[in-house]
Every structure is written in structure tokens, then in C-alpha cells.
Amino acid sequence: MATQYATDPALPVSIDDVRAAHARIGDMIVRTPTLISRTLSKLTGATVYLKFENLQFTAAYKERGALNTLMLLSEEAKQKGVIAASAGNHAQGLAYHANRLGVPATIVMPKNTPIVKVVQTQGHGADVILEGDTFDAAYAHARLLEAERGFTFIHPFDDPRVIAGQGTVAVEMLADAPDIDMLVVPIGGGGLVSGMATVARAAGRPIEVVGVEAELYPSMYNRLNGTDMPCAGDTLAEGIAVKEPGRITSQMVRALVDDIVLVSERSLEEAVSLLLQIEKTVVEGAGAAGLAALLAHPERFRGKTVGVVLCGGNIDTRLLANVLLRDLARSGRLARLRLRLQDQPGALFNVARIFDQERVNIIEVYHQRVFTTLPAKGLVTDIECETRDRAHLDQLIAALTTAGFDVKAVEHA
């Protein structure tokens, strides 16, 4: 991988392309803040700067590349319209800016795309076509319509114009935080990291670029390292769940990126939860991948001044609630205890008294008399409760055990 600190002139995107893109789109996007996080810095051992791309109008950096490409189209191409295959942030970013520029936009999505994404994309003025059960099927149909109707296809990542637009994220980061010496960037297809690495290599000083992929989708890692790990599974980071990275982006990542690290689903969940709790900002799984890398590989980043891109904030609210509750369970602040009780008056009262003594809040109580192997006069009671932390939970369990109760914590994910 990369060892040089200058942009290779043979690559399809140059620093001049990125600077021109920034001049072109700067007045039509949100110049999102780059802010230091003192709490995350203390937690990770690195100096952590966050770039809040989740504050773009469509809540993702994808607007940048889409807008740059739209503005470079000929008038004839603009009149005929553009098309893309996407069920995510690229669809909304392209639809939004095409509508602003008066360019007809068609987005092809798989039939199983959540209705909220369909409605949001339509709300930006795009014509949404549902086709096929997979992204590949939707992509194939989009290319067919491109040929039939004379649309211009705008790829989500494998296009120099898109890459140049995405690179403007790094232009702003390094202007706002010039002491950054490492960029940590999520990788799906590779458009964002390719553009940002182009800027880093032209900075005139060493800036490391580290890409981050979900363990379930290590496609770029495989391509650059000659490995053959599977790319499949239900990842929280669906925005970077790409089975095949781009041809152009693979070339650029190989030349410009220093390293790629993989992160687990648990690290992604922890990162989403921490960003909400500490920074009070909502970030989707892919957007939290950079912080997940710092949490999962602290030795790789300790002592560095790290720029982390929060590249998107489009997460289903029910999924976000689930992630937050699972994190509470892992930290011991939310627990479910299973107790064996005698089915007689006062049994539950005696348990509740201990909860009161230990100042533990009971949220819900579940009785099970029928589906159990206990004797007929026995019962299983699950009590969902809220504690201060893991030590407080352990203290409660010890108190229940001392009082003669058979108790165990129900395992969390």
C-alpha cells in the first residue's frame, strides 16, 4: 500500500480535481464542522477530531460527489436526466441536488427497499422504480434504462467526478484542523477514501490514511491483500456493505491508502451508542465505523491526531433504539435477572424489598408458571431492571444470593 506522500499523476483523480470540485459545490452543500472530542480523545488515547457529515441536508456526505458530477454534465445530458441504482444515501443525495438543478432523476431500488427510503427519495423529486430483489438486479435494470432512454448513469463511487466530490470532505477537515496526522475513513465502494487520500497525499506532510470496513464485508481488504474472506451477513453498517469495490477506487486505494482495518458488529454498535451519548449526534452504522476502529484497535491510533468522518446519519429509529438498549445491557446498566421462587404469598414482595434496599429500579416483571421444568408450586420470574453500572448489578445479585434466592443474569447479546 501507500508509502509516497505525493499524488501519483497517473491516477484518475488529482488534487486539482478535488480543489476544483470544492470551488464548484461549496456554496450548495453544508460546510459541516470539524470539532475535537475531548471525551472520545480521553477514551481512545488519540486526539480525536470529528467531521459531522451527518449534518448535510440529506444526512450524508454522498451529496458532494453527486452534486459535483451533476454540475459537470453537459446541458444536453442534464435535459435528458440522470439515473442511479441505490437504496441508500447516494439515492437521496443525487435526487436532492438533481431537483435543485432542475435535472430529471430516476432511481432504481430493489423491491425490498424499506418504504421510508422510497418515500424520502421521492420527496426529493426523483422517479423511483422498484426492480429486482437485490442491488445487482436493480443496477442491471438501471443500466438498461440508461441505454434505452439516454439517461446519464451516476455511479455511487466508481467515477472520478464522484471521487473528486467526496474528497472535498478532507479539504475542509485539514483546513479546520491542520494538526491532523491521520485520517480514518469508512470504506464501502471506496469513493470517499479515494478522494480523501488524494487530498492527504498532497498536503506536503505525512498524513496517514486508514480505511475501515465491517468484518462481514471486507471486500476492499480482500482485493488489496489477496484474501478471500466472505462478504455476507446482516451488518449494522449497511452503507459500506459492498461485495465488490470499484475498479477505479481499488487502483486509488492501492496507491494512496496506508492500511485497512476491520471492525466487528459489536464495535459498530458501541460506536453508534457512544456518539449519541457523548456527542449527542445520531450516526448510522457506516458513519460510526471510524470511531469503531479506534475502539477496536486502540494501539493502532494511540498518540495520533486523528480525523474521523461521521459520514452519515440515516439510521432507522427502531434500529437505533435497539442498539442503545443492547449497549445498556452490555454495560450492566440494563439487566434481566431470572429467579426461582416459591409460588406463595409474599415471595415477590421479598424480592422487591431487596431491589429497594439496593436502590435498583424495576422496569418489568415476567412470571412463568407453565413452561418450566420446576415443580408445580415453583415459578420462574424474570425481572428487567436498571442499575448504575456493572458493579451495582453485581452488588444486587450478591444481595439476592445472600437472601437465599437462586438468581442468574439472562445473557445479553
What does this protein look like?
Pfam families: PALP (PF00291). Residues 336-413 form the ACT domain. Keywords: Lyase, Pyridoxal phosphate. This is Threonine ammonia-lyase. There is one protein chain. The protein is of the alpha/beta class and 413 residues long. It folds into three domains: 15-61 and 163-326, Rossmann fold (3-Layer(aba) Sandwich); 82-150, Rossmann fold (3-Layer(aba) Sandwich), CATH 3.40.50.1100; 332-409, Alpha-Beta Plaits (2-Layer Sandwich). The protein is 44% helix and 18% strand. It has helices at 15-25, 38-44, 62-71, 75-80, 89-101, 115-123, 135-149, 160-176, 191-201, 219-225, 247-256, 265-279, 289-296, 298-301, 317-330, 347-357, 390-402; strands at residues 34-37, 47-51, 82-85, 105-109, 127-130, 152-153, 182-186, 208-214, 259-263, 305-309, 334-342, 361-368, 378-386, 406-409. The strands form three sheets. It has a six-stranded mixed β-sheet with strand order 1-2-10-7-8-9. 46% of the residues are buried.
Low-pLDDT ranges: none
Query: What portion of residues belong to β-strands?
Result: 15-25%
Helicity, in percent? 40-55%
- What strand line-up does the widest sheet have? 1-2-10-7-8-9
